[in-house]
Every structure is written in structure tokens, then in C-alpha cells.
From TrEMBL:
GO terms, biological process: regulation of DNA-templated transcription; signal transduction
Protein name: Methyl-accepting chemotaxis protein
PANTHER family: LYSOZYME-LIKE PROTEIN-RELATED, METHYL-ACCEPTING CHEMOTAXIS PROTEIN MCPB
GO CC terms: membrane
InterPro entries, sorted: MCPsignal_dom, PAS, PAS-like_dom_sf, PAS_fold
Domain Methyl-accepting transducer, residue spans: 237-357
Species the sequence originates in: Solidesulfovibrio magneticus str. Maddingley MBC34
Amino acid sequence: MKSFPVVCCVIVNALFLAAAGFLGGPTALALLAASFALTTIFVFWTQSAVNVACSQMQDTFAAMTSNAFTCNITGHPLLETAALREALTPHEAALKARLSRDEAMIGNIITPMAIVDEQGKLKWLNEYMVKLTENDGAPEKHVGTSFSRFFYGDSRETIAEQALRTRQKQSSKTEFDTRKGHHKYISIFSAPIVDFDGKLIGAFVSVADFTGVVLKERTITEQNSRIASGVKEATAVAESLAEAAEQMSAQIAHSTEGMEEQRARTSEVAAAIEEMNSTILEVARNAGDAAATAGQANSMAATGAGLVDKVIEVMESVSEKADGLKSEMRGLGEQAQGIGQIMQVISDIADQTNLLA
């Protein structure tokens, strides 16, 4: 309260009282009445000013509570409201800066978050919490709604209510269906909120959505299962190929042995053919010699026959010997014919030998 109006009121009342005591009579009564009236007016004026100032202060703090930060305190000739306003201005600026910074930080966090009161009803939530649960409308639309009804669509004890009940941090991994029926895998955390006096005023809730991680993990697990199955099948195929290779190696070894045996037999046949060829050549030479001998014998037989014809008349005594000689010559002719057959056989063998060669 300013001192000048009070001092003026006190001085005027003192003058009225002094004049009333000095003058006395009806004038004194009039002065006393004037002093009382002045004092009454001053008291009511002071009360009205105080009420207006208190109302303005209430409006100012209410605006701060709703983040309006509008100072409605005006100057007054009796009260020091201007000084009060100047004293509140730096605190208002500091509070505004802090709240703006906090709201900017919270607004840029993409983690779904919410704050519930001590009854478990939403006091604040960000848009990512609305997106996670796939509820309709802006975040402000759901303020005052039960967190259980907002998050799960039914009534149940939530992690926030557990934190409120135990006054301790709570966490849980769980699953839930969004309002549009999509299945989510989440980790949900909650911590109680107390004021500076230790009074419980609510709980903070944050949610980590790891649905994508779970789906990727399941995809990788399925791929690993398919890969393991493929490896198993490939191993079976490799084992079959190994068995087939062993069988093929055995068959190749057997074929190699057969080829070696065939080669040995071929060598033996070639040696036999070569020996047969040598024998045939030897037989051919012997047959040639026999043919030459037979030719000479045939020539000698013809010469002898001529001599016999010429001396037949003079060799009557040796006719029996001549008959014997004729029989021998007939045998030589048969031998010559046999030698010709042998030559034909040798010729056939030579042709077959050439074919075999």
C-alpha cells in the first residue's frame, strides 16, 4: 500500500479531531462525523482496491496455469500493484521460457507418452500416443478419458494405475490390439509424479513399439528355418551324390579291370595271330617246296613214261617193274592233288589272317 494516501487520510482525521476538541459544541460533532465518514470511505476504498488486486492476481495465476501468461494486474493509486507486476514479470518470463522449452522438447519426442491424474484419467498425451492406439481425433479430445479405456478399449488395471498404487516405477512387455484391429507388441513404462511437497499428483506413461522388430525377427527365424531345411536337403543330395560317386568309382574300377583283362586278351590274340601267321608262312614255304618237288617228280614221270614207251618193246623182261613204277607214279599224282588242296586251305587261312589283322 502506498504511504501518501494513508498519511493524507491520517493528517485530515487528526485535524478534524483537533478542531473538534478545540471548538466543542455542535461544530465538534460535525467535525467528528466528517472524520468518521472520511475514515469509512478510506477503508471501503482500500478494501475495494485490495479485492480488485486479488482478483487480478487470481486471473493472472489462472492464466499461467492454462499457459496463457497474461498479467492482468493494473496500477492503483492506493496499492503497490505496479511493483507487484514488475516483480512477477521476470518470474513469468522464466516460467514461460521453461514451459516453452519443455513443450518443444516433448513435442519433438516421437515416443508415445501420456500423463494421468491420481484417478488414472488422461491429463495430457502427445499425438504419437493417439497414432499408436489408432484412436480418432486430436490428443485434446481424449483428455479426461480413462487411460485403460483409451489404450485397451476396456476397463482393466493399467501399468499407470500400478505405479500410482505402489508409488514405484513399473514396466511391462505386452501385446494389444489397436482400435482398428492391428496387433502391436510393446514395452510400456510408468512412473509416479509427486509435487514438491511429496503429494502424488499423477503418473507418467511412455510406450516403446517394437512390432517391426518382432515381425522382422519372425521373418528372419522363418528364413533361417527355410535355410536350415535347404541345407538339410542339400546335405542329403550331397550324400546321395557321394554314394553315387562311390558306386561310379567302383564301376570305373571294375571297367578298368575289364579293360585291362580285355587288353591282355587282345595282346594274347595278337600274339597268337602273329604265331599263326608265322606258322602259315612256314606251311606255305613247305607247300611251295612240296609243289616244286611234285613238279620235278611229274616231269621225271613223263620222261620215264616216254622212255618206257620207247623201250617197252626191249624191256619185256622188266614189265612187272614197270607196272610197279606205274602204281608208284599214280600214288605220286594223288599226293600232288592232296598238296593242291593243302595249298587252297593255306590260301583260305591267309585270307582269314589278313581279315583278322
